[in-house]
């Protein structure tokens, strides 16, 4: 099929490339001219494992093209996926301005019937808004074309987005017309998904499913983070508890890791948007409120631990702290709402000297944090550890698990390691000579 993907970011580019990979003809469109110019040369400016190779392959085979030209792109396609951002507004609600602008440009370029598929995460009820907005725009410019709107939220995870897109567990589709269901089957069948795993429902439920999934996963994380604090008080070990409850098939083992809090471009904003939508509907959400509040506290935890560690030793001011990991999770360069940023800003405010390193997110880190007074962007974790009074590990890159910790310790001035992702064994770290602080794990002093 001929497909247009509007918005060529983490979701749109992966979607476009994967649809091209299974044999559809794909045009990816973005308003960012520099991005499209690079993509036309096969250069992907985000870090996502496998994406660069697959982009080049499909660009060369002719299945995939990139453009900024709505008119040209719209002429060639029958189905348009919308993958533009839906960031938070000040009141937490989703900002639909990017969506509205994309619809306006699309309407101006329209030359006949189209199927519009919304992949962006949008609040329940937005498909109706899209129908009205597009219809009003078409009326205002005197175009009488028909269209259909389908909700098809995206569930890919950054860091394994190609795998997720090529092997979907299920496809959620808000659509009630039989003829369109056939089109959806034709779009997704090449991925080998069973027809039964394409779940059709009404538009509002489809949109809500996306928020429900993210809210559920975030709830599990905040739940474990809350328990980890209690574990520290009571002397229990959150890692043992994770394994203990995760092996119960009713609970399952995923998203039960205590840590320095969740971040990224989805969980925080989607919880805010769902809370805002509920508030707008005069409905109370004490659980969602608590998930967000717990996470806000959790993101401050490592800074608090560092503060109390240095309290009796002249304070944080002037201390050198190495920060390992900036991205909000491993295998991505995405630093949107990353817990590392909260930590870095807090330590900087307290007068620390910062040495930061991330295996993939250094460019984003430099553009976001470059103006800070006392920050050094390091070449690797060894460089970051040089002269450090303490290390804070915030992103659980596998990379850090194979680091030579003896060499790290020899480069440090102090010996404290604050592990925001419980990556190391408490016993072993103490034996090596680290003053090791994990989350929800009793401290061992040898
Ligand atoms: N990133 C994820 O892991 C993920 C996962 C599932 C769902 N989502 C949702 O998908 C949507 C997109 O997220 P993302 O992370 O890919 O965002 P992104 O910021 O990486 O990419 C969005 C792209 O849209 C482009 N754009 C903005 N306005 C445009 C317009 N009028 N016309 C054409 N292009 C336009 C931007 O230039 C940008 O390249 C959001 O709603 C997000 O919540 C994201």
UniProtKB/TrEMBL annotation:
Sorted UniProt keywords: NAD, Oxidoreductase
Short name of one Pfam family: UDPG_MGDP_dh_N
Pathway the protein contributes to: Nucleotide-sugar biosynthesis; UDP-alpha-D-glucuronate biosynthesis; UDP-alpha-D-glucuronate from UDP-alpha-D-glucose: step 1/1
EC number assigned by the record: 1.1.1.22
Binding site for NAD(+): 30, 35, 86, 121, 158, 269, 336
GO-annotated molecular function: NAD binding; UDP-glucose 6-dehydrogenase activity
Domain of life the protein comes from: Bacteria
Role summary: Catalyzes the conversion of UDP-glucose into UDP-glucuronate, one of the precursors of teichuronic acid.
BP-aspect Gene Ontology terms: polysaccharide biosynthetic process; UDP-glucuronate biosynthetic process
Reactions the enzyme catalyzes: UDP-alpha-D-glucose + 2 NAD(+) + H2O = UDP-alpha-D-glucuronate + 2 NADH + 3 H(+)
Record-stated family: Belongs to the UDP-glucose/GDP-mannose dehydrogenase family.
Catalytic site positions: 266 (nucleophile)
Start and end residues of each UDP-glucose/GDP-mannose dehydrogenase C-terminal domain: 322-426
Protein name, as recorded: UDP-glucose 6-dehydrogenase
Residue sites binding substrate per the record: 155-158, 210, 255-259, 263, 329
């Amino acid at each position: 099929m001929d497909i247009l993907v509007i918005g060529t970011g983490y979701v749109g580019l992966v979607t476009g490339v994967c649809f091209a990979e299974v044999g559809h003809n794909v045009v990816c469109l973005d308003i960012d001219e520099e991005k499209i110019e690079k993509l036309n040369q096969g250069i992907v400016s985000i870090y996502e494992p496998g994406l660069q190779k697959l982009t080049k392959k499909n660009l060369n085979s002719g299945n995939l093209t990139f453009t900024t030209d709505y008119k040209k792109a719209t002429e060639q396609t029958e189905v348009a996926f919308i993958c533009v951002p839906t960031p938070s507004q000040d009141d937490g609600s989703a900002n639909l301005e990017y969506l509205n602008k994309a619809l306006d440009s699309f309407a101006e370029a329209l030359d006949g019937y189209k199927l519009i598929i919304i992949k962006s995460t949008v609040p329940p009820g937005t498909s109706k808004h899209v129908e009205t907005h597009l219809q009003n725009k078409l009326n205002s410019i005197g175009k009488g074309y028909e269209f259909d709107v389908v909700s098809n939220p995206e569930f890919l995870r950054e860091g394994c987005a190609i795998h997720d897109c090529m092997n979907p567990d299920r496809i959620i589709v808000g659509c009630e017309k039989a003829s369109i269901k056939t089109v959806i089957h034709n779009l997704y069948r090449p991925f080998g998904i069973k027809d039964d795993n394409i779940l059709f429902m009404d538009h509002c439920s489809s949109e809500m499913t996306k928020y429900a999934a993210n809210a559920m996963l975030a709830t599990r994380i905040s739940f474990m983070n809350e328990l980890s604090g209690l574990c520290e008080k009571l002397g229990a070990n959150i890692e043992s508890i994770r394994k203990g409850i995760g092996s119960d098939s009713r609970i399952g083992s995923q998203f039960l890791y205590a840590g320095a809090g969740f971040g990224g471009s989805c969980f925080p904003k989607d919880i805010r948007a769902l809370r805002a939508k509920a508030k707008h509907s005069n409905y109370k959400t004490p659980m969602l409120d608590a998930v967000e509040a717990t996470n806000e506290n959790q993101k401050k935890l490592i800074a608090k631990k560092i503060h109390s560690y240095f309290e009796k030793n002249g304070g944080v001011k002037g201390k050198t702290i190495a920060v390992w990991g900036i991205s909000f999770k491993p295998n991505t360069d995405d630093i949107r709402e990353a817990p590392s940023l909260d930590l870095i800003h807090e330590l900087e405010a307290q007068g620390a000297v910062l040495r930061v390193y991330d295996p993939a997110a250094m460019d984003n880190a430099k553009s976001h944090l470059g103006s800070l007074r006392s920050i050094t962007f390091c070449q690797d974790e060894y460089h970051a550890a040089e002269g450090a009074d303490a290390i804070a590990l915030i992103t659980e890159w596998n990379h850090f698990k194979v680091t030579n910790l003896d060499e790290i310790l020899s480069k440090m001035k102090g010996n404290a390691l604050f592990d925001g992702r419980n990556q190391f064994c408490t016993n072993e770290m103490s034996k090596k000579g680290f003053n090791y602080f994990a989350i929800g794990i009793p401290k061992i002093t040898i």
